[in-house]
Amino acid sequence: MKLQIDPDLSYAMALEGGGARGAYQIGAWKALTEAGIHISAVAGTSVGALNGALIAMGDVQRAEELWSNIHYSEVMDVDDEEMGDLLRGDLRELDVRKLLDKVGGIIRNRGLDVTPLRNWIRQVADPAVIRASDIEFYIVTYSVTDQKELELRAKDLTDDELHDMLLASAYLPAFRIERLEGKLYADGGVRDVLPLHVLIANGYTHIIAMRLYGPGIMRPVRIPEGTDVYTLAPKEKLGGVLEFEAEQSQKNIRLGYYDAKRFLYGLKGESYYIDAQWSEEQARQFLCAAVQRAEPDPALSLRAIHEKRLPALAKKLKTDKDSYIDLAAALLETAAARQELPLWQIYTEDELLQALGTEAVDSALAAGTERSWIERLQDQTE
366 in helix, strand or coil? Predict the structure, then answer.
């Protein structure tokens, strides 16, 4: 596989806020690290700020272990089992009277108590290591007291300030806001959920934006000429912003890891990860052979295949790119999904075809219709 971004450049990372979805960013960072991508700066909002601190400290394995074993009670003062049942909507497992008492207490106290998160930050984020890091780290939060967005350079903060601002940035709306050094703060996402601005303002020209689609406002940012912003975003759901469960976090780490592989190496596929090795001609031959197997009519001309059958197949598979390589990958992916082929690995086209066999490809072509797929598409295109 060949990298699609220049490994000789340095990159800054903008980490979006998104609560428990943040495990995705750690998986992506792991893939970037394995690929030898040099990170020169990181800016984070909310959970992105917490992850930014971990990235600045440079220990991928520890970050992965922390997220892989996370529980609700490490973030909020709640019972893990009760919180899990509540967020999953499993009211049968909940004591309703006890639940109402807890909800009433949360309302009276203006949100969930995040003392555990405060303690977690102090145990995990080492200010000395962060300040000594070669990676510049910026925290984005919002001062309710001053009604002003703050973009803070970690190396300019004292130990207590660093811990407090990490907590301030992560104040999700459901959390109880407390005064920090006499002021009130809110989650940085209320003004800038994806902190590109601070990186651009500090002169970084190669930026990887890691999306989580978390709650918040996207600050309008003008991208200067000569500045490249690459977006890495999930195509699958990452769970709820308060779903601090180890199992969900492990899934998100894995998804972030493989999505970053797709980004780094230009892998094909929507859910699968396909290392496209075929040429346009090889992909064309594969597709033509599949069509001819589906409609073994000697009168079917190559022109009809290319001008009618393959465009109709592309429409069916919702592949709008003008490439036989992309269309072949879409067909193989459809067949793989129907056969429930293992998802979490990287395949070449030949590996997929070998694992599937031509019968599975033919079945994917004919799926969902009593007539052959080609007859139905012929009705639509002729």
Answer: helix
